[in-house]
């Protein structure tokens, strides 16, 4: 009798989507109680439902609602605004997970991950090199070494030289460079600290121990025991990237002094020390690259091992080399004078060249993988990862170029950097990169115009077919136009691959042209075009001026947005939406990317579902909206097979196939989603044509109609009716529970769940039994 009563208990575990919400809004009750969790993420119930398991008769025919609130993982206090600085790192980390589907691990799959990790390493070097350009080259080398620039800046007085080239102890170029290097060193330290702190706060949760069912062929890595616990790889990459940043600073300081010692014919001891320093930098760079290439992710088990010697000694060794570089550069060289630029053109040119080669190689590898297992729905025919990696490199270039341009303009005052011999300005390559922004914007404008025409055409088609959704309603042209326009704009999401593909291809082509132009002419675009026809010279000068202005404007807007997010909670929540989408994936390519909230959320959900079903023997509907449906699917894959077969999945406004299936085919492709449908007890998906995010799951064969409900009506009523005397709202992506179909489908799922569940076990055995092997679970059922 107790067994039958327990089986009557049903739980609906609600998981919200992007942007977050409150427990009161999710449960439609102002009185809520936290039943498990902390201030970061927790499970809530209505106050009246806290002891629902003790009163099963009160809940016959309806589930006990329970809300999992995880929004504080991404949109919390003001310090999250600093995560905007990590945007290129987040984007390149996404590229790692966008590889095409492969039926088995091959050399090409491993090569794909290796190339993305190397691209991530190049972004770290680029960002630190940009900080070196600002602090060392523009400020300490050019401005402090030029009397005209430093004259009106009292804060540079102790570093500056007078009109005769004389100054105090700090005025020697090597000492100025050593002191200014504190800025990029502090930036590298900040990145290390953020990565280490966010790991401790977000990603150190232990996944639910489980063993995959040997009878089920693996279809996605998301079901592997160690997928959501990448501590070892993150620690290794953090050590390597920290060392790379410190070595970049050491190279910026030490190689300048070593070059002077070689060219000036100074003391032999300094010449030897400079050559030893250069050799040590090369050895350090080789070790860093080896560490990045040596190991990828370990997902088949929960890997709690840490490479402590490597993690501790590699950054310490790089820091020691940096300190030795400071001592070497600070050696007295009275005859040394700073003029022109530091060798930034070669540095930035080399980084851009390496990034371009990595992107091309990544595209070739991705094409080879996609060719073996073609997926017609995969974004850009399997090239979504290389295109995204290209965007990450472009973002890094815009950020570095924007900072350098703005600082150069500020230091040079009313002058134009590079227009005279007193202040050379930033490297020529950055001017060429700025000049390609106007043609890139022209290409984007053309794409937007094409999409606008397509949207208008689709709007007319939707308006013509709208009457079939609302038969017998009197026609209202304004109402029809509004509904059809909403549907047409929602369909723009499916055009995202074309936009990103065009932007990435044009960026790669123009970036290559900028690199060739900078190396071939050693002049800014406007000067390089002197002597050409007037129209060519005018176009070059216009592109250079507009690009410099636009890249500076972009940097200012970027800083302004970050400052507003620091002060304004609503703006911070908007940024949180960006991180909701971008930081679902673990840090596999870049350790300085924003933290992965799913490494906290997925274990939370799996532990809650496994322990509740095992201790109560009840039925469970996992109800996920938008990004919550992605968390729900990931959690279902992590459940022990015997528990997963007793869970019903209800998704609505879900991007599982529309976004994740297309952009991440190796993990959410047709085979993976078909296997999820087969492994859970039952699954139903709701969507609307007006929803720009959610869509059908599109399972092949009979699975499609079984999972996807026909599109819900939106709005619920075309005109005024007795049930809707006021015009019904167009809900789009929100408030799926307002549709009566939602309650009907949830009731069907509960009715379809098998009532045969195992009897409750003692509390001490609940968690252990949740991770038991499939054989013991099947015998219990």
Automatic annotation (TrEMBL):
Top-rank taxon of the source lineage equals Bacteria
Where is the stretch described as Disordered? 753-781
Compositional bias segments (type: Low complexity):
767-781
Indicate whether Lipid metabolism appears among the record's keywords: no
Q: Which UniProt keywords apply?
A: Membrane, Transmembrane, Transmembrane helix
Q: Mind telling me which residue stretches traverse the membrane in this protein?
A: 111-131, 177-194, 239-260, 272-293, 314-331, 346-366, 387-408, 428-453, 499-522, 542-562
The protein's name in its UniProt record: Lipase family protein
* Organism in which the protein naturally occurs: Streptomyces antnestii
